[in-house]
């Protein structure tokens, strides 16, 4: 594991240097459209902006009719690209996939950015998580990921080792990471690129429960900063944090024995729980 993360560090730094030299995702001959899930805000929205800034047409899939349509109109107006919004709630039943397919079946899609996800409202012990939230975690983080070009799946660094108080979330993200790595091997000769992103904390609406995590900095980037870095790794690295400071941090963290990792995670999450209890709370229900 340590060796893999060490390689990921090198890939992240190398990809950053390569992208600065002008060799990035816009140089690759992808098909016309990019489909981004969980794209009405957060990392998904930031990814959509990065793709649109490169002149790429988009299909945005997310819940929240008003917010999604506002995002689609804003991106289309700002970048002069075609943006098609599809409103679905991924925590609902499988009928949503018929709705999505009916609207994209005649469209050629080159890249899928599967960013939709659900996190805990804040770090919690397993028995403290409401049953409805557990099913949302499973339905969105697992079911929605089992669906030519490139496929990017949003996992999490919490799945690298046992992470107390994020047990189900980390478990579902482990599924995503494993799933992508297996597909990458199975389809290694097909020309399809699979990428698993395993970032640490990114400052989005999902982290508004914490004053610490809500203020972007070098180690906790904003969604736009994260997406700007992560998109440059596509085609160069199949498994990466997507953000070189996170790769350095994860490399150091994986040097720790599992028991020390769990102690550090518990100490951090206890602190985040205290922040939540002091009133640093927000509404956290949808995408990263």
TrEMBL record:
Its main location: mitochondrion. It comes from the Eukaryota. GO terms for cellular component: mitochondrion. SUPFAM superfamilies: NAD(P)-binding Rossmann-fold domains. The keyword Ribonucleoprotein does not apply. InterPro entries: 17-beta-HSD3-like, NAD(P)-bd_dom_sf, Sc_DH/Rdtase_CS, SDR_fam. Coiled coil: none annotated. GO terms for molecular function: oxidoreductase activity. CDD domains: 17beta-HSD1_like_SDR_c. It is found in: Mitochondrion. Keywords: Mitochondrion, NADP, Oxidoreductase. The keyword Nucleus does not apply. Belongs to the short-chain dehydrogenases/reductases (SDR) family. 17-beta-HSD 3 subfamily. This is Uncharacterized protein. It comes from Octopus bimaculoides (California two-spotted octopus).
């Amino acid at each position: 594991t340590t060796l893999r993360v060490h390689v990921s560090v090198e890939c992240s730094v190398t990809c950053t240097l390569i992208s600065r030299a002008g060799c990035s995702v816009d140089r690759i001959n992808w098909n016309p459209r990019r489909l981004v899930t969980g794209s009405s805000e957060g990392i998904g929205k930031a990814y959509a902006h990065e793709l649109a800034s490169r002149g790429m047409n988009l299909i945005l899939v997310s819940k929240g009719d008003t917010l999604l349509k506002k995002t689609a109109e804003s991106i289309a107006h700002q970048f002069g690209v075609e943006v098609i919004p599809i409103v679905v709630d991924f925590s609902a039943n499988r009928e949503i996939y018929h709705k999505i397919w009916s609207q994209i079946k005649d469209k050629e899609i080159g890249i899928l950015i599967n960013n939709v996800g659900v996190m805990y409202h804040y770090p919690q012990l397993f028995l403290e998580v409401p049953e409805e939230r557990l099913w949302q975690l499973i339905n969105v983080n697992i079911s929605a990921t089992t669906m030519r070009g490139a496929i990017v799946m949003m996992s999490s660094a919490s799945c690298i080792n046992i992470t107390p108080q994020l047990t189900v979330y980390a478990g579902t993200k482990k599924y995503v990471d494993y799933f992508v790595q297996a597909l990458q091997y199975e389809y290694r000769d097909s020309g399809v690129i699979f990428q698993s992103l395993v970032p640490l904390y990114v400052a989005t609406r999902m982290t508004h429960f914490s004053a610490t995590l809500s203020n972007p900095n070098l180690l906790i980037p904003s969604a736009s900063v994260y997406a700007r870095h992560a998109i440059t790794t596509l085609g160069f690295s199949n498994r990466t944090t997507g953000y070189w400071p996170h790769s350095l941090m994860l490399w150091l963290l994986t040097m720790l024995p599992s028991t020390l990792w769990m102690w550090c995670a518990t100490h951090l999450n206890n602190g985040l729980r205290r922040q939540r209890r002091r009133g640093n709370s927000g509404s956290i229900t949808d995408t990263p």
